[in-house]
From TrEMBL:
Transmembrane segments: 83-105
Name of a matching Pfam family: NMT1
Protein's recorded name: ABC transporter substrate-binding protein
InterPro entries named in the record: NMT1/THI5, SsuA/THI5
SUPFAM superfamilies from the UniProt entry: Periplasmic binding protein-like II
Amino acid sequence: MVGAAIALLYLWEDTREYRGRWELGRARLPLDMNTVSYTEFPAAAVFGLPCMLRASPEISTGSVPSTDILMKRVRPKPHTARFTSRVVAGFGLACVLATFVFIWLTSSPSEGAELPAAAQYKLKLNRAISPASAGTILAASDALFARAGLDVRMVAGSGDGDAIAAVSADENTIGVASAAAFLKARSEGLAIVAFAGCYATSPIEFFTLPDTTLLRPSDLEGKRIGYKRGPELSVVLYEFVAKNSLAQSKLLPIESEEPVQDLLDRKIDVLLGRLDIEGQEFARRNIEYKTLSPASYGVHAAGPVYFVQERTLGKRRTLEKFVIATAAGWSAAYADYDRTIPIIANSIDTPLSRLLITRLMDAQRGFLRPYGTRFGELDERRIRVLHAQLLQRRLLQEPVDLTRAVNYDVLKEAYRSEANNLSRDEP
């Protein structure tokens, strides 16, 4: 339509030019309306120009112009080609604009048209929803997942086995489990693959009540050490014993279903557990405790991992978006406690005071992203050491092909595309 309007404007300007020339020359050039040449006046074919011109005196008397004048007046002028080119250019422009408008109308979503559905995933935890999941909570509440085209629903679990079973049954489920439990499941033949770390380092600690002496590794000798059944905690315990030359004969390890309660009931002297699980429970009950960190004495265990089915790696770009959105969620969680702590408090399973949530958030910084690491980073050396320890203790049925069990490409691409959110600085 715009092009057509331009073409008409050109025609109108041409008409005005010819009408001016007629007014200036009509007294000297008698004109018979029957001899008007449309070659000389092409605009007349469009606007009916002869009807607009006033007849000259020669026409009223019936005089006829001479042959010389007639031949002169029908000779094509240079401006005729200019006018024709204007018409062609206007018509071409109109076609081009019409094409662009058609493409825009057909490619733009019409009112009420449905947007592409977000990719739906379930995040299956190996524990309750707690401040340890603050990054995922903020990624969901701040619509970071939605902007990435993801619909992520977080579901609490009751242990590593629960998360592994959920992933094995559904390719649209992302699981969280300890690195040891993941490798054990992979050794048993499950086609699952780890693609990112939940914590960069293990949050395992030794816990005692205030009246129990636990200042150095040797203080563990002669004490009853309770821990939940599973490869993760047992490997850390025996690695700690080996690293610090403790006498195993003087240790009393005890597998416990309720280690926190057993510690309170004095059935055990020391509890080996996780800061984000047992540590949170102590804090929730307002129970004072002391800790001893294995990392302070040479045991640097791999942290829990995110994992999926092997076939889910075919949607690698989706997993990259998940990592990027979760990292941005953690950055948001630590950016403004006044805004984020109430959001976390309303999203976790176990009610906690805002002050306690703040304490737990501060305590897990060192496990989430220690200085010099990036969010989600998988330490290949730690995973290989853990694999060797599990084989040595015969906790794996078969050696695991780590090149197939752990995928580092998802993180590499996420680091490349989102260097700011996945930087090596602390959150």
